[in-house]
Amino acid sequence: MVTIYGVPISVHVRKPIVTAILKDIQYVVEPVIPFNPPPNWSSLSPTGLIPAMQDGGFTLAESTAICFHLERKKAAPAILPVDAWDCSRVLFFDGYAGHVFRSVIHGLFFQKIINPNILKGATDQSVIDSILATTQPKAFSFLESQIKGTFLVGDSLTLADIGIVSNLINFQYLGFAIDKAAYPKLAAYAAGIIALPPFRRALADEKPFAEQMGLNRGFAT
Ligand SMILES: N[C@@H](CCC(=O)N[C@@H](CS)C(=O)NCC(=O)O)C(=O)O
Fold first, then answer.
1. Is 33 helix (H, G, I), strand (E, B) or coil?
2. What pTM, to 2 d.p., does this model score?
């Protein structure tokens, strides 16, 4: 049994959860909120960030490393293509997903959810407006240019889709829509990936957490 530490509505915790569901690997989620971690947290997550994982006597942090462990634990269905060029492209998009999180999603989520609900601070609307006017259109325009079909790379779900769409889920959780006029391919792509069974189950399982935080689930139903 694999234990995944973190909250399932997190962009990065959802990556190993979707991967485990896709591969039919048994897992449990041990809720950890980074702002209020358990005493042994630094031994599980050296950065203090979620997710971390335990599998038998083996512990690991960093979502990409955890997904890679799950890939080696159970090869099929693969989230990393055999073809070298395709695999490199998948790793590029996984890295780009980290960029989307840091430059778009983290700031929006912090201002709309973490600051008012957890830290009891005030939302800074100017930060939200700035992200929506600068980094978000730049990232979405790039992604729009990359979409050629159902999946970002090849003809099956890979770590590229898992990382990118996990960000797009949290964008929509905040009540924002992917503008179909400006980004028609991205909007259709995200809806298609979210409709796949591993994402549907992950979103159903995280429903109580999403509802507790007052997140918008309209796109997921
Ligand atoms: N590179 C890390 C990033 C993890 C990350 O940023 N996690 C966020 C939640 S999605 C977090 O722990 N945030 C809490 C904080 O910033 O203190 C990974 O892929 O696991």
1. coil
2. 0.97
